[in-house]
Write a structure and sequence with these properties.
Blueprint: E1 2-4, H1 6-11, H2 22-38, E2 40-42, E3 56-57, E4 60-61, H3 64-78, E5 85-86, H4 88-107, H5 113-116, H6 118-129
Parallel strand pairs: 1-2
Antiparallel strand pairs: 2-5, 3-4
Helix pairs in contact: 3-4
Length: 130
Amino acid sequence: MIYLRGHHLICLHFFTGEGYSEEFVENLHAVIGRAKNEGIFVVEGADDVCKKCPFLVKRTCKDEKEIAEMDKIALGLLNLKIMDTVSWDKIKEKLPEIFNRWYSLYCIPCIYLNVCSKTALLNSLRNISS
């Protein structure tokens, strides 16, 4: 089972193969593969994505307060809580109903929007809906 924090439950569905470094991107591919095959255990704080993040300092995100709030909103939208287990597909099923709220709250102001790109987000949403 893979360990994921709140916002990663949503954001990983829009991963397009780019990231901070080759090592980070390789880890994202591995995490997504495992999440699809093994399921997900919802955690608080640093997770399996964060392991290779350059902003992780002593097992804590340098922006933890802001990220923790994002996690809280993500879990509320997905109707999940810390220590829940969930499948990749269950999250994928919920994305169409929460996408507009998430996009306006977090994607539009995100400095990494160009990595996901609105086109990729919308294409992913179309794939999610079909």
